[in-house]
Amino acid sequence: MNTPDEKRARNEALMMAALDGELSPEHSEAFQALLRKDPALRLEYETLKRNQNLMKNQKLTEPVPEFWDTWNQQLFTRIERGFGWVLFTLGALLLLGYTAWIALEEILTEPALPFWVKAAVVLLTAGTLILLVSLARERWFTRKNERYKDIVR
After folding, report:
1. Is there a domain that residue 151 lies in?
2. Is the pLDDT of residue 1 over 60?
3. What mean pLDDT value characterizes the chain?
4. Reported pTM
5. Rounded to whole angstroms, how far apart are CA atoms 120 and 45?
6. Per-residue pLDDT band at 2 (split at 50, 70, 90)
7. How confident is the model over 91-150, as pLDDT tens digits?
8. Same domain, yes or no, for 89 and 30?
9. Alpha-carbon separation of residue 120 from 126, 130, 143, 146 (angstroms)
10. Considering the domain boundaries, does residue 150 fall inside one?
11. Which domain holds residue 36?
12. Do 22 and 88 reside in the same domain of the chain?
């Protein structure tokens, strides 16, 4: 036996499926019969259908380019982005460092691996770290000394 709440929930589920175009032909016929029998349900469905059409036809207006220029020049935005990137980078470095440490520990303490494989892993890791530090230093230096950073192309 269906309670009124269960009936309402079933009708709402049918209505949402109809709005999304997900009803099978049998369910669609049953839903149309429900709409003919229940004027309140029909009114709610028509209201939702109108709202759906309004939302589909709604267009977002893009801000003018000058807005983004002033937005990016604001002090708070620059500090906020910089701080966010610093936290993100620190977190990523900590996770990557911990993962590398665990992996190296596993590889270097593995007795079955030959010495030359262990040496190659250590050399690869050291080379990668040196290259990453070098790249970070270069980026930092060019960012501080970039003459054309405020020029918009």
Report:
1. no
2. no
3. 86
4. 0.41
5. 68
6. confident
7. 998 998 899 889 889 988 999 999 999 999 989 988 988 998 899 888 888 877 777 766
8. no
9. 10, 15, 34, 38
10. no
11. 4-57
12. no
Instruction: Quickly tell me which residue has 């270069």 as its tokens.
Output: 138
- Asked if 36 and 75 sit in the same domain, the reply is no
Q: How many angstroms separate the CA atoms of 26 and 80, rounded? A: 55
Q: How far is CA 43 from the centre of its chain?
A: 37
Distance CA 31, CA 37 (A): 10
Output the pLDDT for position 94. Answer: 92
The residue to which tokens 């209505």 are assigned: 15
Residue 137 lies in a domain: yes
Last residue of a domain, one of 41, 57, 73: 57
DSSP state at residue 57: H
Nearest-angstrom CA–CA distance, 86 and 88: 5
Number of domains present in the structure of the chain: 2
Instruction: Say yes or no: 71 and 115 in one domain.
Output: yes
Residues 71 and 136 in one domain: yes
DSSP 93-144: HHHHHHHHHHHHHHHHT-TTS-HHHHHHHHHHHHHHHHHHHHHHHHHHHHHH
Longest dimension (CA), the chain: 82
The total of other beta-carbon atoms located within 10 Å of residue 41's CB is: 18
